[in-house]
C-alpha cells in the first residue's frame, strides 16, 4: 500500500492515497487536541511520537484481521478505518480518544496492563460519548452470566460480539467504581504500580484494599 504522511509534534499519521488527504489533516488536529487533554488527565506524556495509520474499510480488515465489532485497533500503533469520512464526527472523536488512551496506558505501564483495565480507562476517557454499562450488566447478572474481571486480563479480540460487549461493560463499571471510590489519584497510582511491574491483584490491594475477588 502506498501511504502518504502527516507529521505533527506528537504523531506520525499515515494514510492510504484512497483515504482523503483532508481527513488526514483533520485527524492530525484532533489528535493533538486529545493528546493535550490526556496529558493533563493522566499527568503523563509519552516520550515517543504515536504512530497512526488510517485505512479504507477493507484494508483495515485485511491488515489487522480485527473482528467486525472493532471500530479501531491499537497494537502499539493506532489503526482506524475512515473510508467515506469527510469531517470529524462524534463517533470518530470517540474512537480517537479511546485508541489514544491505549497508547498512553501502554507507555505508562510499559505494556503491563490487563486488557479489562485498558478498556475501562479507554472508555472512561470517552467522556460523554461512553456507553452506560449497567443495563447490560443487570441483564447478565440476572442470567448468572457475569464473568470475573481476571478472566479479561488477556486479549479480547477473539471474543464474540456479545461477550465483548459484556467484557467492555464490566471493564467500564469496574474502572468507574475505582475512580468513584478512591478518586483519579488512586487510578493513576494503580497505573504507576503496574509500570513498576506489580501484578494487578497486588496493585488493587495496595491502592484500594481489595483484591480481584473482592472487587
Offer a concise description of the structure.
With 215 residues, this protein is α/β, with parallel strands linked by helices. The chain has helices at 21-42, 57-64, 90-109, 115-124, 134-142, 161-182, 184-195, 200-208, and strands spanning 3-7, 11-16, 50-55, 73-74, 78-81. Helix 1 links the parallel strand 2 (11-16) and strand 3 (50-55).
Descriptive notes:
It is built from eight helices and five strands, in the order ββαβαββαααααα. The chain has 215 residues and is α/β, with parallel strands linked by helices. The chain has a five-stranded mixed sheet with strand order 1-2-3-5-4. Helix 1 crosses helix 3, helix 5 (134-142) packs across helix 6 (161-182) and helix 7 runs antiparallel to helix 8 (200-208). The longest helix has 22 residues, at 21-42. The model has no long low-confidence stretch (mean pLDDT 92).
Structural class comes to: alpha/beta
The radius of gyration computed from the alpha-carbon positions, rounded to a whole number of angstroms, is 17 Å
> What is the average of the pLDDT values?
92
Helix and strand run: EEHEHEEHHHHHH
Instruction: Report the β-strand fraction as a percent range.
Output: 5-15%
In the predicted model, the low-confidence regions spanning at least 5 consecutive residues are none
- What is the first-to-last residue Cα distance? 46 Å
Beta strand count: 5
> Could you give a short account of the major beta sheet?
5 strands, mixed
Output the number of helix runs. 8
The gross shape turns out to be: globular
